[in-house]
Write the structure tokens for this entry.
Amino acid sequence: MATFQAILRRTLLTSAIACCLVAGALAQGQADSNSRVTLLQLNDVYQISPVDRGKNSGLARVATLRKKVLAESPNTLFLLGGDTISPSVASTIFKGEQVIATWNALGLDYAVLGNHEFDFGNDILIQRMKESKFVWLGANVFDRDTGKPFNGMPPYIIRTFGNIKIGIFGLLTTDTATSSSPGKNIRFVDPILVARQLVPKMRAEGATIIVAVTHLAMPEDKKLAQTGLVDVILGGHEHELLQSHAGRTPIFKWGSDARVLGRIDLNINPQTRRLESMDWAGIPVTDATPDDPDAARVIAEYEKKLSVELDKPLGRTTVELDGTNLGSRTRETNLGNLIADAFRAGTKADIAIVNGGSIRANTTFAAGPISKRDVVSMLPFENPIVKCEVTGAQVKAALENGVSQVAETSESGRFPQVAGLSFEYDARKSAGSRVVSVTINGQPLDEKKVYTMASSSFLIEGGDGYTMFKTSKLLIARESAAIDSAMLSDFISAAAEVSPKIEGRIKRVN
């Protein structure tokens, strides 16, 4: 996979070319300002402050860029492609309050629900939605009890610019039912089915351009694009800079944490009200952009509250820790080993299995002090770590599930990080029969033997496809379990110094 720096270099080049195209469109459209509508897009934004040691991102910088674009292009809409309330260091404390306050300060217009919006349950999400000055969308998310959209969300929005009407609607991945914590009363409907129902209604109301704001995997976005129902898809869910198309419909995704602000200019014929052309650019969000004072004040207030508790050192590491998404979701990592070891030790279990998608820092940690802020950024979900009895057959099935999507995606959240066991797998084989060998504490796996296992309640309850543990006997239930970041913090504090390494716990045969 290309590094962020390499992608950013390509984005800068694309931005320069696209900005020239935008400038040309501007010159042609000066006579009628309604001939152009600008869409600003971000997706998967978990951090309100700069990342990458302050060099990139930062929503106060985004606020500055938005105001600059708005001054140049008055018909501008600011949209978010989902995932912001969780996970993050701050969200473990504020439950997403800090991001809503920041988006309000930025002037966000619309946001589609992402799967992580449900991480703290329905009640917290509803509270965050009440606090929002922008509109939440999610046309395929329904309340089973009422049959209506969740929390009274509008199925779609019609925005009018002069004589031009633009229809906007949101779609969320149905995987949210197992990848997050929605209540049992929430129903997620096939996004394509919902799109086929809603787009004709928007057209009937005079919308000549349809914008879908989605939090779907790229294959799902492509299926939507291939229907020919929508003119542009502003997506999320993947954490990479992606631009694709299917049929005549382009799809845009802008990485994560607001490192790049997407700008899409819709050039519209004011007479026919039809989309004639489209220009786009990725605007890098770096320390070269000054903070917007109003947004900066909101962010500083929350950062001050965080720093007191989170910046105290717990211990230190003698080696760099690999907390990247790509590492956690594709291979054994030393941080994955450290976390799995902490869960195993903290529960006195035979083994531990950690779904790689629960490790969320997406960065490396240099040798030196480890703070509570670091630990919470590694494990931001506040998942209780339970202990249960499992058979060897269940362990084997779990490992098969963990590597079942290796050939389909380079970043499957179900990929396992483990402790107390080692295994080999062959990705060339069909899913369900890839695990070649398993040993537990140096002995071959006995499928009939009962072992004790530590893992998150999310995984034990069937998250990320780990349905084989739903009937397992709990020895430490979630009500009395320690949360993941607290267990890792205690493990590091007790050790004072850690030096995790790659030990061959996971081997890919091919």
Remarks:
- The radius of gyration is 23 Å.
